[in-house]
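lol ok so funny story. i was supposed to be doing the assay writeup but got distracted and ended up predicting the structure for this chain instead. priorities right. anyway since i did it might as well share w the group, maybe its usefull for someone
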Amino acid sequence: MPIIAAFNSKGGSAKSTALIALADALARREATVSVIDTDPQRTIAHWREKAVSSPIRVVEETNSANIHRLIREESSRSAWVFIDMAGFTSDMRTPIISRADLVIIPMQPSPEDARLAAAAFAYIATDEETLGRPIERRVLWARTTPNFVTRVERKIRDEVEENNIPAFTTHLHERSAYKAMMVGTTLAELDPAEYNGIDKAIINSDLLAAELIENVMEIQNRKKENAA
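and the output, tada:
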């Protein structure tokens, strides 16, 4: 039961969109999925209130005293557990990161996003010291344009690669279908007559989910090897 957390304090980083897209892609594979929404903005909880036909289970939690129990309960209920984390200074940060198999840091390729992503990595490094073990994390490039890279984007991506910061190969592209989905539906339920690129968004999210599965399997195999 992999536990995947998404961490970034910047509004508009596509943190909630990324989690819903991944959860939706896994649900299409008939996996059971729970999402724990700890963000005061309630983006995913609000989405779930509208997306009544989705099999994705969403629960809210704002009390750090309950988070370990809730993660344990949802792990016993679902094959995948995603956690939409609150800001950097939330008292739930370390408890959630301590339970996560992987922390995803969504960021757009902009200087401000890069600055806050660096801050997220710094907080995770602090938690590594507290926990006394490494924390798996990956940057997820979000809201990028397929087959088009600006100079600023190339510079930021090059800096990430030069600093050996792990990142997903698959990006979460800028798609109108993702914005429409966030109103309260799944990608497959969107009307092609109203929104363009639904099929491309589904392919994009499926590729991202496949890479996530591969990453989680690699992480779990490393843990087994280290424990042997």
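Helices lie at 15-28, 43-50, 67-77, 93-99, 111-131, 151-162, 176-181, 198-227. The first helix runs from residue 15 to 28.
back to the writeup now i swear
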